[in-house]
Amino acid sequence: MDIGSTFFYKYRRFVKTLKIYLLLAGPGLIVMLADNDAGGITTYTVTGAKYGYGLIWFLLLLLPVAYIVQEMTVRLGAVTKRGHAEAIFDAFGSFWGWFSFLDLALVNWLTLVTEFIGMTAALAIFHIPPVVTVVIVSIVMMLMVLQGKYWTWEKIAILFAALNIIYIPAAFLVHPSVGEVLRIGLVPHFPGGFTATLFFFLMANIGTTIAPWMIFFQQSAVVDKGMKEKDIPWGQVDTLIGSAFTVLVAIFLVVVTGTVLYGTEVESAAQAASIMMTTNPWLGTCIAIGLFNAGFLGAICISLASSWAFGEVFGWAHSLNLKIREAPWFYACYLFALITAGGVVLIPHAPLVLITLFVQVIAVTLLPAALVFLILLLNNEEIMGKYRNTTLQNIAGTAIVVAIIILSTLYGITTLFPELLT
Amino acid sequence: MVTIETVLGHRMGSVLRTWTDKITEINKKYETPRIRMSRGVRIALLFLRIYLILLVLLLGYKFWTLLT
């Protein structure tokens, strides 16, 4: 074969592989980009403003963490054909089932409120009243699920997820010194020494990387998509690409705020966007759009994770492939979550800061259980067969789960008792 | 005999009855855990119980300090 033929053959093979990936891509990519939700974007914004490029190396470490945890949900969903809520009920009985399910419903609803807080704050920068944001977002989110096909929903969600990478061109707008980013960012160190505040920031960054809803969402999405055991490798690639993107987006956002706002006291992404609007409107617009999109992406995934869990536990029809008359309770749950969470944001003087803090504390009660159940299920030969965890996967998975449990617990406790940090 | 329907009225009572029946059905369906309760599983579940009790105590303490 001559060089031309070889090149053509390889090109066709690459295109074919890419087409298959684009058909199968979805749950991993969406969940990972939705991981950079309104809370996540705020965390990265504040991290960059506080420590500049100093913690970029730490964000890179979160790539394997996110991948290893989420990859397990792909295998579990593809093999058992059950969502995480149903899998817990089935394997561990009704006590742990109810605990996980009710905790998930509560933490998801509270997180949904924070997504609406992020979205309304972002669009308020463009003088759009919160009520308009809540109503339009709710309508768009309902239309997305009511078209009756999982595949269509997924591709629309991927389009929104793609907007998440707006922080990459935003980083080029601020002209950072690449040498400085690499020199400061890639060398592991603790800027200003290992202080209590720094520890809090490390915990916050880990806390935003793995959230309980992500485990439930991806497993249910894998089931709804109809992925089978043979699709697991594609699901793994999808999750890996998603993990890379989520970390990349986080790093670019840290570069933006580390360049423009380093040393400035910033409390939220919306505040950072407002500051940037005064100096560089393009940049401020990018940050605000990114924050809105992050909240929107988080909201569509979280509300779906809850609806799937309700359907699994109560035995209702629960698929995006079903019409509203075929799965009325599934869509009713989705709508109820949207309306109530959006409504809370519109209540004058609602304790929104308290809700944001409360989310972190409640999430800490669910995350360890969800992670421990994940490891136990993945080790069960009767359930997983040949797809159960290997020794290496167990070592990596257990180490990560233990680290996440310890750090997220400390994060929750310090949120509850901030005086411990002083 | 006092039933849910007599206390809450027929309409509300039957709605509540449907829900309680459904929850009872779920509890019955998942009465026996499918996973084999090996030593490792038992230790992990015990750890989770202790962890959750400690967290609830901490939350309770925080609530108490807020009140006082």
Order of helices and strands of chain B: HHH
The 3D shape of chain A can be described as: globular
Order of helices and strands of chain A: HHHHHHHHHHHHHHHHHHH
- Major protein interface: A-B, 30 and 23 residues
**Main sheet record of chain B:** none
Overall pLDDT metric of chain B: 84
Q: Uncertain runs of chain B with pLDDT below 50, 5 residues or more?
A: none
- Which percent bin holds the helix content of chain B? over 70%
Q: Helicity level of chain A, as a percent range?
A: over 70%
Beta content of chain A = under 5%
Number of discrete helical segments of chain B: 3
What would you call the shape of chain B? flat
Radius of gyration of chain A: 21 Å
Beta strands of chain A, count: 0
Radius of gyration of chain B: 20 Å
Low-confidence stretches of chain A: none
Determine the N-to-C terminus distance of chain A: 71 Å
Multimeric organization: heterodimer
Please characterize this protein's 3D structure.
The complex is a heterodimer of chains A (422) and B (68). Helix content of chain A is 79%, strand content 0%. Chain A contains 19 helices and no strands. Chain A has helices spanning 3-24, 27-35, 38-51, 56-80, 84-92, 94-124, 130-146, 150-162, 167-173, 178-185, 196-209, 212-225, 232-260, 269-279, 281-314, 328-346, 352-378, 381-384, 391-416. The longest helix of chain A has 34 residues, at 281-314. The model of chain A has no long low-confidence stretch (mean pLDDT 89). Helix content of chain B is 79%, strand content 0%. Chain B is flat and about 45 Å long. The model of chain B has no long low-confidence stretch (mean pLDDT 84). Chain B has 68 residues and is mainly alpha-helical. Classes of the chains: A mainly alpha (422), B mainly alpha (68). Chain A binds chain B through residues 89-94, 96-97, 99, 313-315, 361, 364-365, 368-369, 372, 375-377, 380, 382-383, 405, 409, 412-413, 416-417, and chain B through 22, 26-27, 29-36, 40-41, 44-45, 47-48, 51-52, 55, 58-59, 62.
